[in-house]
Amino acid sequence: MDVLWLDQSDVQSLLDMPSTLEAVENGFKQHGLNKVQMPSKSYLYFEKYNGDLRTMPVYMPEEDIAGVKIVNVHPDNPQKGLPTVMAIVLLNSTSTGAPLAVMDGSFLTDMRTGAAGGVASKYLARKDSHTVGMIGVGDQAHTQLLALSLVMDIHEVKMTCRNLSHCDRFEKDMSHMINCDFVKKDTIKDVCDCDILVTTTPVRAPIVKSKWIKEGTHINAIGADAKGKEELDPQLLLRATVVVDDVEQALHSGEINVPFSKGIITEKDICCELGEIVAGIYPGRQSDEEITIFDSTGLAVQDIATANMIYKKAQEQGVGQNIRIF
């Protein structure tokens, strides 16, 4: 039996942001309609090496596909010449359980996470949003901004990070794709003066203070994706309409996990899941004054919806290698 093998260059040749946005939005919708089987992601923590390994399975009956992503997060990897995040995605036949394809999931993860921010902003940001604030300018920031550029008219990007020289590289990379002004800021406070704020850092203590966020701001909180991580002042969560990708995952590994564990917020402080808004079960933004927060933990449905699209394109275009397994 043959399995289709797609390496990173294959995946990059098949995956673009417009198609990723479409796949991810549909994945959220299926999740919001409760039409998927998706256990919460499971974690193995390697404290000795400051890293973890995660498994993320899902079955999507509407697409008649199932699969699992295995992904690591090791923040110290760049010092070893390796990416912080590396992933593999396995697609399986629902009728036989046989493996259909194995593909690189690292680029896919960056793209689908960026697309999640784009989908969230489509439904939660003000329609007249033009200024984006970026806290952190790593790989994930690139795809977040790329997705935002497809759902809003960006006039200005304010950016900051621990090493401000990285902002220059970020501008060089993104200015070829997005025609807007890029402004480097010395402080996080200055970046928070924006319409849409994107946080993509791995910090474990809040770096965004509630008093810095003006009414009407939308925030894509991307960095907190594991227990103990948080980027936002808990008081900001209490001021805002909080939308999560998945309640169970968010409570143990999302932006809200630390304040929830301390009793600062409760599950009642969560408005709903993004998929429920996409599916029309809950409304999106209610007023121009509302502060909205999207708490992204990353869902298997995003990965497998995107991977299935890649698999179909690969079959149509003859991309990849068939490898005999059994």
Index terms:
alpha/beta, 8-stranded parallel sheet, 7-stranded mixed sheet, globular
What's the number of helices?
Answer: 11
Please tally the β strands and state the result: 17
**Largest sheet geometry:** 8 strands, parallel
Rg for CA atoms: 19 Å
Order of helices and strands: EHHEEEEEHEHEHEHEEEEHEHHEHEHE
- pLDDT averaged residue by residue: 97
Distance between the termini: 5 Å
Helix-and-strand structural type: alpha/beta
Q: What fraction, in percent, of the residue positions are helical? A: 25-40%
What amount of the residues lies in strands?
25-35%
Structure description:
The protein contains 11 helices and 17 strands. The termini are close together. It is an alpha/beta fold and 326 residues long. The chain has helices at residues 8-14, 17-32, 106-124, 139-151, 165-174, 188-191, 234-239, 247-253, 257-261, 274-278, 300-317, and strands at residues 2-6, 42-46, 51-60, 65-73, 85-92, 99-104, 131-135, 156-160, 181-184, 196-199, 204-208, 218-221, 230-232, 241-244, 270-273, 292-295, 321-324. 34% of the residues lie in helices and 27% in strands.
